[in-house]
């Protein structure tokens, strides 16, 4: 005989207000179209097109040192591979590297950094994106330098936050002044990007200048606002200038995410080892969780090489030699540009870029008028300086990067190019000579604009 158990009483089901499914008209989501990018990477394909015609382009567009990875770091990298350190590791980075970062920064900036506040990344770009993700709600304001590293701005439309560019002025040496900065801060400020030494301008900040900025931040923003201090070029300073971190200013360590890495300091852009020091262990734990979801961990052999870079006494003379070389090149390029009547270039104090004002060349060539005559859909995606940049590339075989690629907001009416000095002195001398020739080539410029060439990046 089969006994049938009584059915359990059915619970009332809540009504679900599920919206009707509407098929998308395209393959990609709307949010995927909102995220920006770094246009300097798009330029590589244009350079390759020109070189395919059989003439070498002088590449003054690439933001990576052309010096070799110091041998002691390369040896440590190979040793780590030989020892089989090729597996997954801690998502926040191996403890040895986090400890080395904490000790190095604590010593330099007179801070007391807990290694548990350090998170290691594949380069420092993820730290920028994670800062937007973790600290900024839709409608919050993000303050950032313009011109500045493009990823500060590119995430803003993706997350629905509000761009608040701090437009840097040539007459201020592209420094961030109180006059510019103060009106931008308020209760809606969630995230502030600072970058010293600066890409693309090469400006640096003194302790007094950072104290002034810190005073404004502490007075005008709430306790949850965070400063993202991009210190990727911290080791490359000229003329006796010393790098100062805003995190070392009283009251700012608890507000600041300090980000740097191996790419610029050790001429190791391919190693993809960066890090961020968070204000609290709790914030570092949130960043660790984000890392797990995006890339799990970075190769331990690269991290062991980074430990060697940070702790070996052989690193200091290698860095000093590189910085001396970059200073010689800076002097050569700035003097050469300022000898051309159509150019004006301030003297950068750090990094490895020159950022000349090419407005005189644009006026002589008729680039402002040529830009104004472009169809609206083209004109909105280029600038007079972009036209000159592309003319330099296609007709005079010099690759540079336009002002618009370093934050679009605030770039209107600013006529600058970024020139990387990460190439040989002979190439830099020839590049300046070609730029001078291009500045006087009115007929060639007009032919180029009328040629049907693509006038956007």
Automatic annotation (TrEMBL):
Keyword Transmembrane listed: no
Cofactor(s) demanded: pyridoxal 5'-phosphate
SUPFAM superfamilies per the UniProt record, alphabetical: PLP-dependent transferases
Pfam families recorded: Aminotran_1_2
Top-level taxon of origin: Bacteria
Ranges of residues in domain Aminotransferase class I/classII large: 57-434
GO biological process terms, semicolon-separated: amino acid metabolic process
GO molecular function: pyridoxal phosphate binding; transaminase activity
Protein keywords: Aminotransferase, Pyridoxal phosphate, Transferase
Family classification: Belongs to the class-I pyridoxal-phosphate-dependent aminotransferase family.
PANTHER family per the UniProt record, alphabetical: ASPARTATE AMINOTRANSFERASE
Name by which UniProt lists this protein: Aspartate/methionine/tyrosine aminotransferase
Organism in which the protein naturally occurs: Longimicrobium terrae
